[in-house]
Amino acid sequence: MIYGMKIRILFSLLLIPALSSCAVSTKGQQTGKAESIVIPGGTVSPVFNVGFDAYYDQSLDDVVPGYKLLTVAYTNGTLELIQLDPLGDRWYVIDKKGKRHEATINLRQKDPDTWSGLPKKLKVMIEYPLIVPAGGTITIDLMFKKKVDLTAFKEVVYRPAGARREYRIIPREHL
Questions:
Q1: Are 46 and 106 in a shared domain?
Q2: Close Cβ partners of 86 (under 8 Å, ≥ 6 residues apart)
Q3: Which of 10, 30, 65, 103 has the smallest number of Cβ neighbours within 10 A?
Q4: Do 140 and 54 belong together in one domain?
Q5: pLDDT score of 13
Q6: Rounded Cα distance, 62 and 110, in Å
Q7: Percentage of the chain modeled with pLDDT above 70
Q8: Are residues 95 and 135 in the same domain?
Q9: Is the pLDDT of residue 47 over 60?
């Protein structure tokens, strides 16, 4: 009986600070500005153990009708899965003029007519992944409307859903 009471007291002492810190961090996410982490393309951040690289290939223009593709490699250097959120993650490209353009990562939701006209194999290839495996690398195809100039882009910005940070991937030629 005393042992059970000690466990409840210990649990309460641990739970209350944890819940209050969650509430503070949630409030901070809604009002605070995101921490910006610069990662040179093709490298892994030693602090966060993630790496990115980004590449634009003009020959892939119109593989998805009306869109240009920018391919991002995302490396997970940790021993845990990294979850991705096709509804909450945000990706942007900063073009050579410094203008920010949001990527389409969920074509099924954003442009259902175009999505329904794509071949099944292409859908599988461009669909936004849900995880980056431990110690693995995946590729993500970011889609931009045809009018966006992706040649000589300055950087790619990734804001994970619910995170208070953004990753700024700087292509090697801009370092």
A1: yes
A2: 105, 106, 109, 128, 130
A3: 30
A4: yes
A5: 39
A6: 17
A7: 81
A8: yes
A9: yes
pLDDT above 50: residue 22? no
**Are 43 and 102 a contacting pair, CB within 8 Å?**
no
Please check whether residues 132 and 150 belong to one and the same domain: yes
Rounded to two decimals, the pTM is 0.79
- Whether the per-residue pLDDT at 175 is higher than 70: the answer is no
Contacts of 99 (CB under 8 A, 6+ apart): none
Structural domain including 70 reads 35-174
User: Are both 68 and 105 inside the same structural domain?
Assistant: yes
- What number is the average pLDDT over the span 135-144? 97
CATH number of the domain to which 91 belongs: 2.60.40
Domain count for the chain: 2
* Cα atoms found within 13 Å of the Cα of residue 100, Cβ hemisphere only: 7
